[in-house]
Specification:
It is a single chain. By secondary structure, the protein is an all-alpha fold. 70% of the residues lie in helices and 0% in strands. Helix 2 packs across helix 7.
């Protein structure tokens, strides 16, 4: 596969993921009184789409999901990514930590949630993220 074909393939994958995450965000925002189960289904799908992971991924920890995403996109073993990512230029922030922060920011922005950095920064799992969003919507 030449560079242009590869670039087009990557663009298609990223566009589909973007469409999927926006679809999940719109479904959540369109529901004026979502149940926790509804939010769990759509937020999990949102996170997995955002991280380009399979819908059947069962992991709950957001940093672990970020590692899986990095491993998939870089085609490396998760353990190797963690080992390679310990020396980083940004105050020792790992790629998985950065992906987590960016994900939480995207959720806040896409769902039009009021800023609450203290509470949101304590979220470590998809389950906790669902609880956070459910609390905001309740």
């Amino acid at each position: 596969m030449d560079a242009n074909a590869r670039r087009q393939l990557v663009m298609n994958i990223l566009n589909k993921a973007r469409e999927a995450t926006l679809k999940e965000a719109e479904a959540i925002k369109a529901n004026p009184n979502p149940t926790r189960d509804f939010l769990e289904e759509h937020i999990r799908s949102y996170v997995l789409s955002k991280y380009l992971l399979s819908p059947d991924t069962r992991e709950d920890d957001i940093k672990a999901l970020a590692s899986l995403s990095l491993a998939r996109t870089m085609k490396l073993d998760v353990k190797l990514i963690h080992e390679l990512d310990t020396a980083t230029p940004c105050d020792h922030a790992t790629s998985e930590s950065t992906k987590k922060v960016l994900l939480l920011y995207a959720v806040q922005k896409d769902l039009e949630l009021p800023p609450n950095p203290e509470k949101l920064s304590n979220v470590t799992t998809v389950t906790e993220l669902v609880d956070y969003v459910y609390e905001v919507f309740s």
